From TrEMBL, chains A, B, C, D:
One GO MF term attached to the UniProt entry: DNA binding
UniProt DNA-binding region: 39-58
Protein name: HTH tetR-type domain-containing protein
Domain HTH tetR-type per the UniProt entry, residue ranges: 16-76
Source organism of this protein record: Flagellimonas maritima
ATP-binding keyword on record: no
Superkingdom, natural source: Bacteria
Keyword match Endoplasmic reticulum: no
InterPro entries in alphabetical order: Homeodomain-like_sf, HTH_TetR, Tet_transcr_reg_TetR-rel_C_sf
UniProt keyword list: DNA-binding, Transcription, Transcription regulation
DNA sequence: GATGAATGAGAGTTCATTCAT
DNA sequence: TATGAATGAACTCTCATTCAT
């Protein structure tokens, strides 16, 4: 893990070489062009495989979407969990998410948040995808909670949740708005505002 | 509706009665099911018009999308601009957006932000829609700036922008995340955090 | 009606020229190759129309099948109802169905009973088609009942039903088995056996 | 099974254990859902074997169909040949087929005649299956002829054929129509009509 | 001897759009 | 003006079959 780049979407791959290729290809297409706008024809063409081959690896396009979301989420959280402890305790760790996001933003293919993008496309009947996204965001929020616990002292549980929740909300805005404005000011503003939340609290 | 903005997609419509019906119908479908997942067949079926009639009012589905976004944006901003002055100056007006959002959230058809939802579906070639969304968000951000100007005194331009930008980011998160979690905690948390930004500043 | 051939499947056509063509084409294919073995691609190719054109006339392949069955049934019953009164009362009319069937058998494209063929292909979930076939057969059976009423006297209702039911069963076998054996012996045997049923009864 | 017919599709199977499982599984599916509507994927899934395993036992889906028909036919005729001699000579044996059918009808999975169902689906190029069905029906008809020979005396060959043919036709209707109407009246009516055929003949 | 992996062809259906009338 | 009719292209997904291992 050490030699790998700070952040990459393609950490945790399964065994199947073709399965990986499908996810990787679909991932790029879904992320850049949208889930509904991407057809399986496009995926198999880019993969150089037959349609039936794709469907022997995934039961449906929806399943590919779920794999895509899971894989991006895993890669994101795994990388972030490596990134955070490398920073100094206190403010540095609490604001780590914004610097991490800055790295993501600088990536040539940055396109906002994969999960929120997909969320926006969902019809009411696509409950599985909805549930997956919600679960992943809760996981992320939960990890932010851990960071707060590790870096803030003498505060109530409610105050801790205010901090982690606040960091979460500011991160979510930052990733979406930096994409929308094709500019990193939302990231810096979020990072700039965040400390107001834990201003009078005691950090480790 | 009395004082329409200088530019509106309504202007290009030949028969405003049918045109508005199309937008209204498409609006509901785009908002609840997504833009790409909504077909023109569904729109004309719900409208009870012929396909060629739709295409005599709009050049393309993309144009309907632009009209949809414009109309939602206009309605939103118009209502909000009526809502704000009715509140007490100072903190009340600065936090007005969150109470306004709470009302929106309580609406039975709440589904998050129409613009961000659409943004997530865009392919790189759909620049017109991208530009429209960006423009609308800038307009909203700009109005938040006006509110700040009217309710904060003795602060630098940079500090004003930090406030309006912060309110904007918190609002954007709040609308998306309350939809994602099907819960209004993100709205209340945003409202709760917002005052930290202008804590030491002088309000009118 | 007078100048038309004794029996034709294409009596009752709807207005739409293309709709007619689709049914007519599908009809031939379903009847000769089977319903499931016939693809919509084959139908549109033979029709010389686009796929979407087919689907603007019929909502599904199943609907085409229903139209096919209905049309064959209507043509059959209509022709038969013209055929019967032209024959002498009594035995002649009671056995008319077998002579009518002989004409059908001699048609170059004879392939057994369209309805029973389709019945055999049905999955448990294709209830609409099943119901349609059952209804049509009941209608036919009912008309055989009318013939019996008109040609037999002084017999109980039960005996009348035995005759019409018997004629029906013998007809159904005759059409299927003459197809299976590529020979008309089942038709002649059915016609030969039928009189045994009403042997001792009084005919008009 | 003790005295297998000279030719049986079972003979060509390499591993009869798996081969029989395939036929058994396919048999259920073909009979309840139709031949064309049943995919080999469904068969191997229910069998728990690999696709290549299936194709090492049968050269094609058509071959499985032939084995299915042969097996059903063998089981039917074998059982029936045990059933008949157990009944009293004369009318009882001549009408045995209808009581036998009543038992079949009462079975939970009754779905009409496997052979006629398949016959209805055939395209003109599926001659092997057509021939197999014809052969099996001839075999059945032939056995009905044996029954007649054993139970009717002093009648010409033609009259015997009229009886066996009549029984055959009434049976074929009865099995198909009881399925179509989901009611056993066609069986009882057939049994009721049959004696008219040999009414004046001398039984053993 | 059984399999996992792959495939070309085609299934039924819907897409956004156009055009003669 | 509004429409009915038509379309090529694309959609997601499944078919029966093969072959290297």
């Amino acid at each position: 893990m050490a030699d790998r780049p700070v952040f990459s979407y393609f950490y945790s791959m399964k065994n199947s070489a073709i399965g990986e290729k499908i996810i990787k290809t679909a991932s790029k297409l879904f992320y850049s062009n949208g889930y509904n706008a991407t057809g399986v024809n496009e995926i198999i063409a880019k993969c150089g495989i037959a349609k039936a081959t794709l469907y022997s690896h995934f039961n449906s396009k929806e399943d590919i979407c779920l794999a895509y979301l899971q894989q991006r989420h895993d890669a994101f959280l795994t990388s972030f969990k490596i990134y955070v402890p490398e920073r100094k305790n206190g403010k540095e760790q609490l604001l780590a998410i914004f610097d991490f996001l800055t790295d993501m933003y600088r990536d040539g293919d940055f396109n906002g948040c994969w999960a929120l993008k997909t969320l926006g496309e969902l019809s009411p009947n696509q409950e599985r995808i909805f549930a997956a996204i919600q679960k992943q965001k809760k996981e992320f929020l939960s990890y932010l909670g851990e960071i707060v616990v590790n870096n803030v002292v003498n505060v109530s549980k409610a105050e801790k949740e205010k901090i982690s929740g606040g960091l979460y909300l500011l991160y979510e805005s930052a990733i979406t708005e930096s994409h929308l404005f094709k500019n990193d000011w939302p990231i810096f503003l979020s990072k700039n505002i965040a400390p107001s939340i834990f201003e009078r609290m005691e950090l480790v």
